[in-house]
Prior knowledge:
The protein is α+β, with helices and mostly antiparallel strands. The protein is built from 15 helices and nine strands. A five-stranded antiparallel β-sheet has the order 1-9-6-5-2. The chain has a two-stranded antiparallel sheet with strand order 3-4. It has a two-stranded antiparallel sheet with strand order 7-8.
Amino acid sequence: MACTATAGSSVKEKSDQQVIDGSSIMELVENDEAFSSFVDHKFKELDKDNDGQLSVKELKPAVADIGAALGLPAQGSSPVSDNIYSEVLNEFTHGQEEKVSKTEFKEVLSDILIGMAAGLKRDPVVILRIEGEDLLEFIDGPSYDAEMASIFSEIGYSDNATLLDCIIKAFGKLTVDQGMPPPSDSWVMCNIVEAALKSWDGYDRGVPVSKITFLGEFKKVAKLVARNLKEQPVIVAHSENTFDGSGIKRLLSNKFELDKSLNVALANVPKDRHGKISAGCLQVMLDAVAPSTGLPPIGAVEQIDKIVADVFSTTHADDKKMVKEDEFKKLLTEILWTIMLQLEDNPITVSSSSVVHEPLESSSSILQP
Length: 369
């Protein structure tokens, strides 16, 4: 997956794009008969020993499917994603139960799917078929020289840098807006970019690196890449999300919803015998209320994590002191307010593009009846 934080615009609309906005998920969950049938089928599929309950072992395939539907890498790929998988499993087991009934499974699955649908409604995923036309339009268009000259200045070069190095780095700077699938994907790099470079007549020549040479030679390679994309179109899932503090502002302006969110999150926070809570739990609480604020989970967006870390540092919210529940809520509200102000001043736009290597409907079986 290629992920960047910018102040950029949305991907331009194309006639052959598909938008996944969560509406089909909501149709399923809101149809009692269809959803009950769906849950019955899934439960029976997972209940290998037919005892009418799901063990942690039997739940793991469902958790893996939910992770795939959320776009997470496979379990074991990273500590951050593994933590999310653990949290999903805990939603089913509440961190204690060894067995989960069908009723519990249905309730939790409904909540998770509704959350996924809300996320997709807020930040739809656009499925694009990239087949070279947009790339050709870009390299033959009026903005080519200026944009590629800027990229050339950005990637820089040293005395021992080759033209080939610069061209490969430059492809990494292009996005779906220019008609380029992410070359960070190994299949794209091998079958599209490297295949084009092997057909490039400058591949084995020691061409001096200059802006003029770069602009001319990059265009040659880009045309070969466009040809390869026409022969082997690439399907890309693209999403963009701007964090500007508006979600936090909506929550803070609604005292009823704010109290409700805080109380739900507090229900799972450990307290001492005096009912006090460690201020060290504030980050856990922030993550718990994140869906209500439009913030991503901690660990999902590096730029947001940095803002959160700075806020916790300046407010000394990472202290381990014990505080009463009301003071705990006040601290978290102040943290949310500070994060909101920072995002209002400097919004963060995160865009991500990932290549779909299999039919979308088979990438996760969580919605397969």
